[in-house]
Write a structure and sequence with these properties.
By secondary structure, the chain is an alpha/beta fold. It starts with 6 loop residues before the first helix and ends with a strand. Helix content is about 25%, strand content about 20%. α9 packs parallel to α10. It folds into two domains: about 325 residues, Alpha-Beta Barrel (TIM Barrel), CATH 3.20.20.80; about 80 residues, Immunoglobulin-like (Sandwich). The structure holds 4-nitrophenyl 6-deoxy-alpha-L-galactopyranoside. 4-nitrophenyl 6-deoxy-alpha-L-galactopyranoside binds next to loops.
Amino acid sequence: MAKQVSAQGLEQFQDNRFGMFIHWGLYSILARQEWIMHIESIPVPEYEKLVPQFNPVKFNAEEWVSIAADAGQKYMIITSRHHDGFSMYDTQLSDYKVTNTPFKRDPLQELADACARRGDVKLGFYSSLLDWHHPAYRFREESGLAWSDYIEFLHGQVRELCTNFGDLASIWFDGDWPRHQFNETNAYFKAGGDFEYDKLYDMIHTLQPDAVVLNNHHEAPIPGEDIQGFEQDLPGMNTAGFNLSEAQEMPLEVCMTINDHWGYHDTDNNHKSTRSLIHKLVRSASLGANYLLNVGPTPEGEILPVHAMRLRQMGSWLKLHGESVYGTRAGSLSTPEAVVSTQRGDTHYLHVLDDMSDGVYIKQMPDSITSATLLRDNSPLTLQPYEKGYFIDLPRGLRDPYDTVISLQ
Ligand code: JFZ
């Protein structure tokens, strides 16, 4: 049987509910998102010219971790190496890495130290399965290398990630998309064999027993993958076009961009509002999913102030309403469209996301529930029997601009 994350690690991961995703690499210099090398067909020697330009002098690990903590995010997942193949840490398995730039420092190590010092934000790593730079991935014919050379590199890097940065929350894989044969002969994508997942996942679960493994392959998880991921969509929805799999009976995670791109894009000003971000967080929670919200820092090493501001506003709301998010599981009440629910044991939380005319009608109330209060300040609300269910009157003055939470006990 394939190894899995520990029961405790899996519970903890779900309890976290809210995380920060970070896409950061050489591509931030070009400021046109992380796929730029592919989109503009930039040859490897050209792209390599970014190396001597990378010098994010404003990078401050403490600052990033404190933004996450202020936002109420309990973990942070950062790109250790994206599809461009550039390692953002001091790997011993390649010279194509951040410590060989003018910056010289290892930002992943600094983040690991900052997380360890604070203790309230866990660290995890994104790892790309495909690699547009590694000769054994994209240039096997020219280089005379074999697929096994790439597997050795990939597994070796994951071993480094699991060994050198303390306790991790998660390893997050991406780049193996079986249902999207972009172009079977396109060397940018075509793997030369399989990724030996059994071995790869067993290694992670042995070295990091509490870390969850996720693979963003957009299919139902295989053994050793502890959670199921959804990209840019809530579980069960597919507006993005690539979330073809059904939500499984297992812990879930939704990842989303805060604007329209993962990596830094200097003309993307389509920032989601704080209100819509809070709604996505609680809608994810109501479906049993964590919400991993991405930011793409600048080439100077900054999380954009417009993003930090929204994150901190989410944190202010969570300070008063966190009880209805952290440690909860999917809701089981049947609610009107604009209302979702989460629950912990016998306590249910109604999240009123829109202006309901007078209040909320719940068709079927579990017998265990006898009282309703406003979570924010415990003001009592009346549970009025109405038809077969209950009506909860929600006076205008009690409503929250983002999400009014009613606690049912
Ligand atoms: C993937 C990455 O390619 C992207 O750069 C980012 O890291 C995101 C979190 O994950 O995004 C994908 C993956 C697959 C498809 C589309 C976007 N697909 O199969 O269409």
